[in-house]
Amino acid sequence: MSKRVVITGMGIYSCLGNGLDAVKQSLYDGVSGIIFDQERKDLGFRSALTSHLDSPDLRKALSRTQRAFMPEQAKYAYVATEEALKNAKIDQDYLDNHVVGLLYGNDSSAEPVYRSVKAMYDKGDTTMIGSGGIFQSMNSTVSMNLSCIYHLKGINLTISGACASSSHAIGLAALLIRNGLQDMVVCGGAQEVNPYVVCSFDGISAFSTRESEPTKASRPFDRDRDGLVPGGGAATVIVEDYDSAVKRGAPILAEVLGWGFSSNGDHISTPNVEGPTASLEMCIRQSGVDIREIGYINAHATSTHVGDAKEAQAIYNVFGANGPEVTSTKGQTGHEMWMAGASEVIYSMLMMKNGFIAPNLNFENPDEDSAKLNIPAKRIEKRFDMFLSNSFGFGGTNSTLIIKNL
Amino acid sequence: MEKAELIEKINSVLAEEFEVEPETITPDADIKQTLQLDSLSLVDMVALIENEFKVKIKGSEISQLKTFGLLYDYIAEHQA
């Protein structure tokens, strides 16, 4: 029996703000979270642009031992999850007495790996790495930390699918719930923000070098885009079985209608059009919707030449000339990578709940492909009840979600 | 460093790292109980002492250092 899958809570810690209210306002105002980071320049980065986040102070919330096992992205994820659980009206008593799962997108933990290896070389003694090194260093660091903090007893996995990780996490959670294997899954994505995780990415000239104008550097779909700007933080979405949500009187925010996915089977970093098109088409088919019902498309577009062009072609292939508004929130946030799938669902949800579409920041001139889409450069006031969100990643992994307002 | 000064520094470093009230650290108090150490955080104490006092506590000896008094003596004895 196929069950309905709903979203009952959201929480976010992003360069656009700590929490839903702050982020909603930043989206509405078209604020950029991008800065120039001198430390990166001093380290030899080609581009010192990044999003900016303050590290949350969790000394009062968590014990010293709990914090010792958490790298920065797990701390972001904890803050986001606290908000999402509160938003979903779930307390520790509920978590203790129900089987709740956890699927979180994360695809690196570079800083703890670097610090552990450095301690080994500097001190010649692995004991000097300390007890947190191993738990901070693993890709599954976020899911292992959160599952222990909240005493979760359902599925407990990290999803590593490059920049589509957390979109896949939501899709997989929906699949488990739809098939009756879980009633509730804490879902999301986390992304560390430090030089260690992106130095090699910078080394392949993937980043914008518009360092003189940090807030104009991330310009998805714009003719003069010159690369992405790395970002990060964490976003948590509570995904739940509709009946379970009704039974416990939860705030039901939206329904996950469908998930589409595909793999390009092609180049490791250069995307194609066929893969994303297949993901979009599968998601629409699975959702059983008429594409005219979709009022907004949150694109993956990261501000790279090839990626944005291929996605624009894929969207045009599926939606044609009269499709809904398309924007990439990465103009404001930079590319939140492992976090992006979940954060962009939340950005889109905030727009859907508040009747606006945030501007596709820095979209000044279209190119041949983006000219065919309806991309608002300025915020528009628009009520819509359904959106589609794309997330694509290295290796040609693609994920698409369609979500309906409730 | 005088022993009293060393003890004060050890107490202060441990209290800060393990987030306990400094007055709970006394010569007769049990280290693991006072600092709430398990097998993992014990590793952090060993690393902290080596970093701060340049004294490496051998694995075979850590289990014998039950009280802070024994720890003070061990550090004082092994410091260069």
How many independent structural domains of chain A?
A: 1
- Low-pLDDT parts of chain B are none
> Termini of chain A, distance in Å?
22 Å
Uncertain ranges of chain A = none
In CATH terms, what is the fold-level topology of chain B? Non-ribosomal Peptide Synthetase Peptidyl Carrier Protein, Chain A
The level of helicity of chain A is 25-40%
Number of beta strands of chain A: 15
Largest sheet of chain B: none
The largest β sheet of chain A comes out as: 11 strands, mixed
Structural Rg of chain B: 11 Å
The fold-level CATH name of chain A is Peroxisomal Thiolase, Chain A, domain 1
Question: How much helical structure, as a percent, in the residues of chain B?
Answer: 55-70%
- The total count of helices of chain B amounts to 5
CATH homologous superfamily designation of chain B: ACP-like
Can you count the beta strands of chain B?
0
Instruction: Report the top-level CATH class of chain A.
Output: Alpha Beta
Task: Give the arrangement of secondary structure elements.
The complex is a heterodimer of chains A (about 400) and B (about 80).
Chain A (H helix, E strand, L loop, with lengths): L4 E10 L2 E2 L1 H10 L4 E3 L1 H6 L5 E3 L12 H5 L3 H16 L4 H6 L2 E6 L4 H14 L8 H6 L3 H9 L6 E4 L5 H14 L5 E8 L3 H9 L10 H4 L15 E9 H6 L6 E10 L10 H14 L8 E3 L6 H15 L5 E3 L2 H4 L6 H15 L1 E2 L22 E2 L4 E8 L3 E9 L1
Parallel strand pairs in A: 5-6, 5-7, 10-11, 10-14
Antiparallel strand pairs in A: 1-2, 1-8, 1-9, 3-4, 7-8, 9-15, 12-13, 14-15
Chain B lengths: L2 H16 L12 H5 L3 H15 L5 H4 L5 H11 L2
Helix pairs in contact in B: 1-3
Structure description:
The complex is a heterodimer of chains A (406) and B (80). Chain A contains 16 helices and 15 strands. With 406 residues, chain A is α/β, with parallel strands linked by helices. Chain A has one domain: Peroxisomal Thiolase, Chain A, domain 1 (3-Layer(aba) Sandwich). In chain A, the strands form 3 sheets. In chain A, strands 1, 2, 5, 6, 7, 8, 9, 10, 11, 14 and 15 form an 11-stranded mixed sheet that branches. The model of chain A has no long low-confidence stretch (mean pLDDT 97). Chain B has 80 residues and is an all-alpha fold. Chain B has a single domain, classed as ACP-like (Non-ribosomal Peptide Synthetase Peptidyl Carrier Protein, Chain A). In chain B, 64% of the residues lie in helices and 0% in strands. Chain B contains 5 helices and no strands. Chain B is globular, with a radius of gyration of 11 Å. At the A-B interface, helix 3 of A face helix 3 of B.
